[in-house]
Amino acid sequence: MADPKIEGYQFKPGFKGMASDTGSDQTMFKGVHWGKAMMWIFLLSDTFVFSCFLISYMKGRGSTLIDWPNPSEVFGLHVFGVDVPLLLIAIMTFVLITSSGTMALAVKYGYEKNRKMCGWLILATAIGGLTFVGMQAFEWSKLIHEGVRPWENPFGAPQFGSFFFMITGFHGTHVSIGVIFLFIYAYKVFAGHYDNKKRGWFTSMKGDYVEIEILGLYWHFVDLVWVFIFAFFYLW
Amino acid sequence: MSEEQDNNKVVYQAQSSETMGGSASPSPDMDYVRPAEIPEQDLYHGHSFITKWVFCQDAKVIGVQYFLTAVFTGIVGLILSWLMRLQLGFPEAAGFMTAEHYYQFVTMHGMIMVVYFLTALFLGGFGNYLIPLMVGARDMVFPYVNMISFWMFFIAVAVLMASFFVPGGPTGAGWTLYPPQTILEGTPGSGMGILLMLISLSLFVIGFTMGGLNYLITVLQARTRGMTLMRMPLTVWGIFTATVLAMLAFPALLVSAIMMTLDKILGTSFFMPTIIQAGEVLEYGGGSPILFQHLFWFFGHPEVYIVALPAFGIVSDLISVHSRKNIFGYRMMVWAIVGIGALSFFVWAHHMYVSGMNPWFGFFFATTTLIIAVPTAMKVYNWILTLWRGNIRLNTVMLWCLGFIVTFVNGGITGIFLGNVSVDVPLSDTYFVIAHFHMVMGIAPLMVIMGAVYHWFPLVSGKMLDEGLGKWHFWITFLGAYSIYFPMHYLGFIGVPRRYFEMYDSPYMASATGMNEFISMAAFIVGAAQFILIYNIIKTLKTGKKAGQNPWKANSLEWYTSTVPPEHGNFGERLPVVHRWPYDFSVPGAKEDFIPQTTPPSEVVHTKVEKT
Amino acid sequence: MHAGIIFFLVIIGSILFHIFTPWYWTDIASNWKGMDDTITLTFWVGGGVFVAVCLFMIYCVFKFSYKEDRKAEYKPEDKKLERILTWATTLGVAALLAPGLIVWNQYVNVPKNAIEIDVMAWQWGWQYRLPGEDGKLGTTQVINISDNNPFGINLNDPYGKDDVLIQSDAINLKNNKPVKILLRSVDVLHNWYVPQFRAKMDAVPGVVTYYWFEPNKTGEYEVLCAEYCGVGHYAMRGSVLVQNDEEYNAWLGEQETFSDLIAKQKNFNIGDTKLAQK
Amino acid sequence: MTDIKEKEQTSTHKIGIYLWIWGLLFVLSFFSYMVDWYQFQGFLRWSLILIFMFLKAGLIMAFFMHLFWERYALVNVLLWPMTAIACFIFLMVAEFEYTLFSRAFYFVVGGGVQ
After folding, report:
1. Which terminus of chain B is less hemmed in, N or C, by CB atoms within 10 Å?
2. At CA B518, angle to CA B516 and CA B521, rounded to 5?
3. Structure ipTM
4. Which residues on chain D are in Cβ contact (under 8 Å) with A57?
5. What angle do CA B395, B397, B400 make, to 5 degrees?
6. In angstroms, what separates the C-alpha of B67 from chain D's closest C-alpha?
7. Integer distance in angstroms from the first to the last C-alpha of chain B?
8. Whole-prediction pTM value?
9. Residues of B with Cβ-Cβ distance to D97 under 8 angstroms
10. B565 preceded by a cis bond (ω within 30 of 0)
């Protein structure tokens, strides 16, 4: 975003700007909506949650004497008579990135007050998220069918199942919550709540298209976490 | 200059001329403050009893709700400590108590006091009440989320208290909840007790995250015109930095709670290696108990500062106001708070020197830990240098502050013992540790809480607490608490290990018997003395004398509200405009010995104001 | 005014308490005098700072207590004073840290000639294992533990056969000979702690931890568990007897080795995983 | 917040940049997948995984989450706390190596290797 115009405030670029923003009165993040700042700080906190999960995973995987199962084989699929490693995971990644892209465009159209476009893109994102959760459910059931449990598995170290279910479960919960909110916001956009400043159901505060960006931040974060899980859990 | 700007100035000139008397000719340029970036906050005003007092969205009411709930848990914790001291001092009189009971009391006392009492009181209680007032906001930025935050905390407390009544009782694993013993049979409350504890902690973290986001965004994005970060009272700095720590440290607690819950109910082995208990090999294997300790202390050490930093901030304000002098080295104080906060993420394993972790960590953590001693020491110097050449009102508030300095320096010095890795070896896991952390994060913050209660009670209720009762309350608490914990260090020197249900059959420990009786007596008296405060509050609410506006002649914005006590929205028609830091006391040339933050420079051109 | 006097008495009382206290550390019986010295150093530096800060505070209370007609000094900052105090504190802290790190360096580096002792902890008791003539301890696994193999020694490890087993909570040590305590636990955390030796370390299930010391005073000492390990924590005691060479060797000669134990048992069954009951 | 400001904020980016980033993300994901497909091993595998991971994460944060266009005040507030995580990771690597050594040495290998 280009810097917003604030009466009486001189924006400076780079670190100089950082110093003058921090030293100024009223706000530190100039022109940043309260809700957006809140979402950023929340995501920072959530980053620490996922970092702690992944660090625990590293410590657990690193210190076990039993061999870690080869994820490439465990998560492989047998399709059309060939074993394709990590096929499902690759599709899931594809789906999540697709939904991230549609979300980014939804934010753009939201700011342009293009109600229709924004609404459809959010709906597309929600459907992408739903597909992802569905595939994850399929993956879970496939692994459970193969005998992988949180406390044991036939392929190697028992911690494999523990960390797999915990981390993907926690990520999946995030996705599911995101999907629910995406549907709600798609409804709100289509119903025009942001154009006529309708007050919210719970908070009784007026809505604004900036909420789409806040939702977008959350959704991109979910995608971001998946990038790390994909690298550390499936590829490593 | 906009029209709004002009109007605003008329208002504050009228306001400040009351306190300042006449002034030099106003010069519009020097009083210029940028116009508001953000429009007025849209507030939801409650209409019914429920929306006004129960599910209320006013941060001040939420603060009081947090405060009362935390005090309730604190009283539970106090009673538990009495029971523990009864066992330690007079085991014959505590015949009803088994070792199981004792360990359950130890655990619940620790967890309640650290998390549900001190953290909730400082951040939830003082944070909610003071942040919007001190930065000049109408309310917290997300009042609805703030309300949910309190009720999550309330449910967390309810779940915690419920664990007293489940089969097997509350968990007795020690407040650190170290696995494997936490979820194994040999520990009391390893069934429902520990599960409820973990659920309660998770709820606390979720609720706290909601509150914490509010505090942070209010400080960062909702300050009033003219309120720069470097003009905020140190109270806000302390609570703000503590909240940052909480937002980044509580995730580790949440993660460890989730993993331990899974170990308990699903039989995963995150923290559980192969274990033989009562002759049977359990269905665990390959996990690492030390991982839990790392996660726990990655949360636990910042947690110490989550309690300490608000106390640092608040005490700075109290000392400054009541010695009628600016806080010495404000900039240094701010950087010290921020520095301590940042460093606190790099020192966690100094709790684990003898835990069996990689022994080479000792070098790293001893160094980082002792580095923290420097900013902390600077804060202490600045407090006493604030007293130096001040004009000290020796009222109850100041007494609590002086008590804080004595106990905090004492506890801080023993912290250097325990942080310095090889000195820690003989002293860790002994009574020295107990004495240290009670002195530094039990008694010292408690002194600040009490001082803050006496200081801000006139704001909250509009009435002054009784000074005579307050002094009795202080002296009994201070002398009693000091005589509990100062001698206790020496039990640690002998080598008396902590968490011992009874200990007197060792020859060199038998000498500790008399000491333990003395400590227990002191503990009973100190605990009972806290009821003086409750009596004082009830009496004051009924018959206390009216405080009026700004009874302490302080500068910060919370004393310049439109009504006392402040109503929802805090500042009436117009938000205050800030022109200076909150510590302009005894400025040469000024008529009174204080200049409120709202006083524009044009009114005090004849004074020698150095810092704004 | 009375406030200042009481605070002053508290400080004086603290100093007197320290001088006349009957409670102070036990006579040291190991090589870790360095720890005691570092504590003493920290005590003098820290105690000095504590007394100085408190006395200064009390002085301020006397000198600057409220008078209607006096105005406090107005001095927001004193850069020079702050800089001096920062550097002085940094130096003081560094002076305390350096000896601490030096001693820690000794603590984590075990001398080559140390005798290894395997200390096995469980809820709630101790037992010990010494290397046999080969000077090396055999490897162990918790799952091997049974009535017949109370230490869980791996049967295929040749070093384990001659290990000396002491199925008692009492152990003897040779005077003036460093020992490396290898701690392991079969259930929860424990900590093998003798106050007179100063040193301690947690026993953690799933790994083996270590520390070392050199006993230098003969006599009997009590072992305490210093890490909370469940309801029996306070009762989890043991004992150490530090002896001269001849006495120690005589004692060692009477102890049973793992091969003796195997020979004694006709039906050695590794699958039976019952922990030895005391 | 204010309507006036929102209108100023609506000077949004061209759609092209989002499509570009979108495409890049697909390409990078495909590359990551190829790392597994071709079964690269050892140092090459890990460095490729990390490079693609950080590139993807960086693109998402910088463009989809608009950090590239945000002011440094916000960016720095968000990135500096990661040093604590970095320290945690670094130390936990040392910790798991120590644990692994301890387990392997005392439970399996023993004095036999010396």
Report:
1. N
2. 110
3. 0.93
4. none
5. 110
6. 30
7. 22
8. 0.93
9. 358
10. yes
Using alpha carbons, select from B357, B596, D10 the residue that is nearest to residue A209: D10
Of C203, C236, C217, C179, the C-alpha closest to B497 is: C236
Residues B392-428: b if buried by 16+ CB within 10 A, e if exposed: bbbbbbbbbbbbbbbbbbbbbbbbbbbbbbbbbbbbb
Residue type at B440 in one-letter notation = V
pLDDT band at C160 (very low <50, low <70, confident <90, very high): confident
- Cα torsion for A32, A33, A34, A38, to the nearest 10°? -70
Q: What is the DSSP string of C237-260?
A: EEEEEEE-HHHHHHHHHHSEEHHH
| Assigned token pair, A108 | 């753009």
CB B79 within 8 A of CB B101: no
Assess whether the previous peptide bond of C124 is cis (omega < 30° from 0).
Answer: yes
In contact, B99 and C231? CB cutoff 8 Å: yes
The pLDDT tens digits of the residues spanning C199-256 come to 999 999 999 999 999 999 999 999 999 999 989 998 898 999 999 999 999 999 888 8
Q: Could you give phi then psi for residue B583, rounded to 5 degrees?
A: -120, 25
* Nearest Cβ partner for B356 among C204, C224, C234: C204
Residue (of C123, C227, C231, C220) closest to B502 by Cα position: C231
CA distances from C182 to A81, C116, C118, C225, D2 (A): 55, 7, 5, 15, 67
A158 and B266 Cβ atoms separated by less than 8 Å: no
Helix, strand, or coil (residue C153): strand
Rounded Cα distance, B426 and B437, in Å = 17
Containing C20, the helix (H) or strand (E) segment is helix C2-20
D11 — pLDDT class (breaks 50, 70, 90): low
Helices and strands (H and E) in chain C: how many:
5, 11
DSSP H or E run through C127:
strand C125-130
Q: Angle CA(A180)–CA(A182)–CA(A188) in degrees, nearest 5?
A: 110
Q: Does D72 touch chain C (CB under 8 A)?
A: no
As a residue count, chain D comes to: 114
The pLDDT tens digits along chain A (236 residues) read 556 778 788 888 888 989 998 888 889 998 888 999 999 999 999 999 999 999 999 999 999 888 888 888 888 877 777 777 788 888 999 999 999 999 999 999 988 888 899 999 999 999 999 999 999 999 999 999 988 998 888 888 899 999 999 999 999 999 999 999 999 999 999 988 888 777 777 777 777 888 899 999 999 999 999 999 999 998 88
Residues 171..190 of B with a Cβ closer than 8 Å to C: which? 172-174, 178, 180-181, 184, 186-188
**Contact D103/C at CB under 8 A:** yes
Q: How many CA atoms lie within 13 A of B230 on its CB side?
A: 13
- Cβ atoms of B341 and B241 within 8 Å: the answer is yes
Give dist(CA B474, CA B470) in Å, integer: 6
Nearest Cβ partner for D12 among A47, A111, A220:
A111
pLDDT at residue B20, as a whole number = 41
- Distance between CA B43 and CA B26 in Å, rounded? 34
D91/B361 touch (CB, cutoff 8 Å), yes or no: yes
- The span from the CA of B540 to the CA of B556, in Å, is 24
Residues in contact with A137: Cβ distance below 8 Å, sequence separation at least 6, in sequence order: none
* 8 Å CB contact between B83 and B170: no
Q: How many CB atoms lie within 10 A of CB C213?
A: 23
Which CATH code, of 3.40.50.720, 2.60.40.420, 3.40.50.2000, 2.60.40.10, is assigned to C115-264?
2.60.40.420
Q: Which amino acid is at B24?
A: A
